[in-house]
Amino acid sequence: MSFYENVFIARQDVTTAQVEALTELFSGIITAQGGNVTKKEYWGLKSLSYRVRKNRKGHYTLLNIDAPAAAVIEMERQMRLHEDVLRQLTVKVEELEEGPSAMMQSKGGRDRDDRGDRGDRGDRGPRRDRDDRGPRGDRGGDRDDRFRSARAPRVEASSEGASE
C-alpha cells in the first residue's frame, strides 16, 4: 500500500458538523477498499485566493491515507461528484507525518511583539519620531505654494498693452 495526503475544500455555507460528516464519508470509502486513514485534520474556514463556484471561503480538511491506489481513485471520484466539495488535491508521499501538520503548528516566534527593532534604515539615516518634524511636518511651506510651483506660471496682463 502507498501513502497519500489529501486536502479537500468544502463550501463556505456548510456547517462544521457537515464537514466532519464529509470527512467520515471519504474515510469510509478508503476503509471499505482496504485502506486506512491515519490522520484527519480540520484546518478551519479560510479565505480562498479567488472565487470558486461563487465561494470566497472554504472549509479545509487534511487526510493522511495509507491505502491502495484503487481506493484513492474511488475517493477522488466521489469527491468530484459531491456538490459540497469545491476542490481536492491528493499527493503521493514517501512517508506520513506523525505530528500536527504545518498548518496546525503554532506560529512560535512569529508574533508581532517578538520581532524587535528593525535596525538601521540604510541610506535614509536613523528613524526620526514624528515630533521632530516641526509644526508643518517635513514638507514646509504653504500647500498652495507646493501646487502653484507644479502648475504653469501665472501670466499677468500688463496695463500698457491693453490700452493701445
Distance between the termini: 104 Å
Which percent range fits the helix content?
25-40%
Largest sheet: 4 strands, antiparallel
How many individual helices? 4
Uncertain residue ranges: none
For the largest sheet, list the strands in their spatial order: 2-3-1-4
C-alpha-based Rg, rounded: 31 Å
Strand content: 25-35%
Which outline best applies? Answer: elongated
Q: How does the helix and strand content classify structurally?
A: alpha+beta
User: What is the mean predicted local confidence, pLDDT?
Assistant: 82
Tally of extended strands?
A: 4
Query: What sequence of helices (H) and strands (E) makes up the elements?
Result: EHEEHEHH
How would you concisely characterize the structure shown here?
By secondary structure, the chain is an alpha+beta fold.
What's the arrangement of secondary structure elements?
Elements: E1 2-11, H1 16-32, E2 36-52, E3 55-67, H2 69-81, E4 85-93, H3 143-150, H4 159-163
Antiparallel strand pairs: 1-3, 1-4, 2-3
Could you explain how this protein is built, in words?
With 164 residues, the protein is α+β, with helices and mostly antiparallel strands. The protein has four helices and four strands. It has helices at 16-32, 69-81, 143-150, 159-163; strands at 2-11, 36-52, 55-67, 85-93. Strands 2-3-1-4 form a four-stranded antiparallel beta sheet, with helices on one face. Helix 1 packs antiparallel against helix 2.
